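Section 5.1 Outputs to date
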Amino acid sequence: MKTPEEIFAEAKALVESADTPAAVEELRIRYLGKKGEVTALLKSMGGLAPEERKSFGMQANKLKQDVEALLEAKQGVLAEAGQGLRLAAERIDVTEPGRIYEPGTKHMITITMDEISGIFMRLGYSITEGPEVETVFNNFDALNAAPDHPSRDMSDTFYITEDTLLRTHTSPVQVRTLMSQEPPIKVISPGRCFRTDTPDATHSPMFHQVEGLLVDEGVTMADLKGTLDLFAKRMFGEEMRTRFRPHFFPFTEPSAEVDVSCFVCGGSAPSCRVCRGSGWIEILGCGMVHPNVLKVGGLDTDRYTGFAFGMGVERIAMLKHGIDDIRLFYENDIRFIGQFY
């Protein structure tokens, strides 16, 4: 067995060469642990003669104290050095230029939807929302869509079950409003819609709509035309003119599509990329609410009439800002989004 002097000399050399707190801890266990060399030395006193124990015990205890002092001193040195390194690493150079953080902004779809909603809210409309997963009844039947209507085909609609689907327009919100509120009703319903369109420059399986509904006594087509003419002027400019063309929608009668005068060429350029020389641009569909739809809400069709309209948010944004590909809205390219800060 090593003598106390040999153990101390060895421990001193090893402690001096230790360069990490973990290495110092290993040496503490080696010499002072339950099976350490100093501990073993203390335990060996039981085999000595009584007259030798006192002297040997004093030497062993002093060795333990000396080794503990060595380890403690080394830990202090390493801790101080580590703190110095940490402070150096965390040092801040106040002369360096700061980082520039670009502020965020609303997406163009949100901006356009807010702008559309704001115009109608100033006209007294309130915003009503509904679920994106709808019943077939609310999405088709209540809106007077015949069972053989093309939009009900599996190729045009995302069906979840036989009776539920992803809504193809926000018109079901109008149905829910008719069934839950008494006239006068004056609401718009912005939100996402889904159809099984193949993505291209003008189509997307997910898109956004804003639809409107007004029901009261004495509502006429003139009210509808005046409302949408005002909307077009607020959205595209006071110089805008509107044109109503007869069309067919199962949930309105009579129905119309609304055009605005071309704000690019005014109809003077046959090669205009927007109106193709016609001088008019289609922006939305509308009409007087079909009596069958009013009956779903339990309304007296001899007393109440109403009008409804709907527009694609992406289409409005593309027309207003000269965007030629709907897919740009969904690619999250900051170079595109940043143009509308």
